[in-house]
TrEMBL record:
Stored SUPFAM superfamilies: Alkaline phosphatase-like
Sulfatase N-terminal domain span: 37-345
Catalytic activity: Hydrolysis of the 6-sulfate groups of the N-acetyl-D-glucosamine 6-sulfate units of heparan sulfate and keratan sulfate
MF GO annotations: glycosaminoglycan binding; metal ion binding; N-acetylglucosamine-6-sulfatase activity
Database matches in Pfam families: Sulfatase
Family to which the UniProt record says this protein belongs: Belongs to the sulfatase family.
GO cellular component terms given for this protein: lysosome
Protein name (Swiss-Prot/TrEMBL): N-acetylglucosamine-6-sulfatase
Catalytic activity, EC: 3.1.6.14
Cofactors named for this entry: Ca(2+)
Amino acid sequence: MCNYHITSLLGYLLFGALVRLHAGTRLNLVCLTPLVSLLQTPMKKTKELIGEAGATFVNAFTVTPLCCPSRSSILTGRYPHNHEVRNNSLSGNCSSVQWQQGPEALAFPVYLSKQKYQTFFGGKYLNQYGRKDAGDVSHVPPGWDQWNALVGNSQYYNYTLSVNGKAEQHGDSYEKDYLTDLILNRSLSFLDDRSPQHPFFIMLAPPAPHSPWTAAPQYQKEFSNVQAPRDGSFDKPGKVLHFTLNQNALPLRWQALLSVDDMVEKLVKKLDSIKELNNTYIFYTSDNGYHTGQFSLPIDKRQLYEFDIRIPLLVRGPGIKPNQTIKAPVLNIDLAPTFLDISGVNLSTANMDGQSFLAQMAPSLRNGTVRPFFLVEYTGEGNPTKDPTCPKLGPGVSQCFPDCVCEDAFNNTYACVRTLDGKQDLQYCEFADSESFVEVYNLTSDPHQLENIVKKVDPAILQAMNQRLIKLQSCVGDSCRNIK
Ligand SMILES: *[C@@H]1O[C@H](CO)[C@@H](O)[C@H](O)[C@H]1NC(C)=O
Ligand SMILES: *[C@@H]1O[C@H](CO)[C@@H](O)[C@H](O)[C@H]1NC(C)=O
Ligand SMILES: *[C@@H]1O[C@H](CO)[C@@H](O)[C@H](O)[C@H]1NC(C)=O
Ligand SMILES: *[C@@H]1O[C@H](CO)[C@@H](O)[C@H](O)[C@H]1NC(C)=O
Ligand SMILES: *[C@@H]1O[C@H](CO)[C@@H](O)[C@H](O)[C@H]1NC(C)=O
Ligand SMILES: *[C@@H]1O[C@H](CO)[C@@H](O)[C@H](O)[C@H]1NC(C)=O
Ligand SMILES: *[C@@H]1O[C@H](CO)[C@@H](O)[C@H](O)[C@H]1NC(C)=O
Ligand SMILES: *[C@@H]1O[C@H](CO)[C@@H](O)[C@H](O)[C@H]1NC(C)=O
Ligand SMILES: *[C@@H]1O[C@H](CO)[C@@H](O)[C@H](O)[C@H]1NC(C)=O
Ligand SMILES: *[C@@H]1O[C@H](CO)[C@@H](O)[C@H](O)[C@H]1NC(C)=O
């Protein structure tokens, strides 16, 4: 189980400050990446303090809708076929030794550290982080000066943190241990202790609103009347799935997000009080979307549909005009190049697949165009053996809770090419299953993806999309941005 995100606006927080955009100015970066959030409701302060003070990207996507591969893309600026993190298991490279020796050594904090950034990490890192067979808690990824990382997957209490390589056990006292508040408090101390000579980068990655959705005591009664959103695909049966829905999940997630909203407010206040707010870029995003009943799928991510691949992205900072809505599509692999761009790294030395979106949000600082086509790729997860609680199902499937309705399988492996501009909004996907299944959606006429138009669309369009997909699936660096 990984990070749960709802629909489009998520939060796995990253904060930072950027440097050296203008001679003589130092810019800081704050990146907030909480797991998910429907920004429109529970995150009022975040919307005001980041979105209305800066830019709201309405077409932000993850290049893979699963936590560990997506987080690995955020860290490296690479598509999964280049960082080679396939799933949430150690055997799929989630925080594995090969990951540590390869992609992690080239992740963005390494570059920021070379630019003399003081760096802080707090929260959930990668699902398998801290395992004994993968370096234990003593493995501190390069580039981080202050490291407060959760061992394993999401928890709010009773967790272990690696604090600069030493294990620190926590219990379940709200005042002492609630993880969202604890990482905020430590980031505030980091700001007090920083050297004013150099810029800083803070990444806060609260597990909220991932399950187990533990809210702070003062928020446990909120949102009792809220239901999962009934959008166009809600409760429309998909091909193989019957209707089940966990109505409880949404209010609980929203409750857990209220502490993230407080986190944003406290950080912004702190930056203001130390006179760094006008020098700091603040990013708010998440690692994947989430569904609650769409196509009658229970609760999860991992699918190619909008509700799982769209993520929230709000950014404020120098050169970004307040209250802008930006339609240009941006990807989670673009975060790392954007951080490096702001910090003054020559991007052609980093060979990342993504591209900086500084030009889209601050045209007074940079010129640049967006790429016309991008890739979303996913490797299905499965269990090699039969699940004893679901005796009717064979091996090869997974995420079959709570009712033996499976949301994933080894053959739920797919790759999609997407184009999204003023003229067209088209998604073309191929599955690696025994049928080589193809799904094509015209999002302009069918925003809820109710009709697969593969049999209706002009074959020349299918052929062109297939060719682009082949190129994107093996692209590296520049070639990922230059598909025609
Ligand atoms: C894990 O990553 C290494 C390189 O970092 C790669 O050689 C290996 O094939 C990857 N494993 C999987 C399952 O993709
Ligand atoms: C934390 O662990 C203690 C001891 O095992 C247990 O009693 C308590 O219920 C746990 N708290 C939470 C919130 O899981
Ligand atoms: C965080 O700091 C606040 C203010 O000092 C304090 O009330 C709270 O208990 C702290 N929480 C944690 C988990 O450290
Ligand atoms: C931020 O404000 C300070 C003090 O008013 C000023 O010196 C600095 O140039 C400002 N920075 C930016 C990026 O505008
Ligand atoms: C931002 O724009 C919205 C919609 O146009 C408007 O309602 C709101 O007042 C604006 N906020 C600010 C801070 O300007
Ligand atoms: C960035 O690096 C590339 C490759 O090393 C070099 O050709 C280019 O001149 C550099 N650009 C700047 C602005 O320094
Ligand atoms: C963007 O391009 C225009 C036209 O080529 C140029 O005048 C302007 O200075 C450029 N802006 C930046 C920030 O590079
Ligand atoms: C993760 O990927 C590895 C390598 O492809 C595979 O052996 C393993 O079964 C996958 N894990 C799951 C849960 O699918
Ligand atoms: C997908 O895998 C499942 C479980 O192994 C199998 O029952 C099903 O036939 C496969 N479907 C396709 C289209 O390959
Ligand atoms: C998608 O739908 C729009 C609006 O109906 C239409 O103009 C466009 O031609 C369609 N595109 C394709 C590829 O079918």
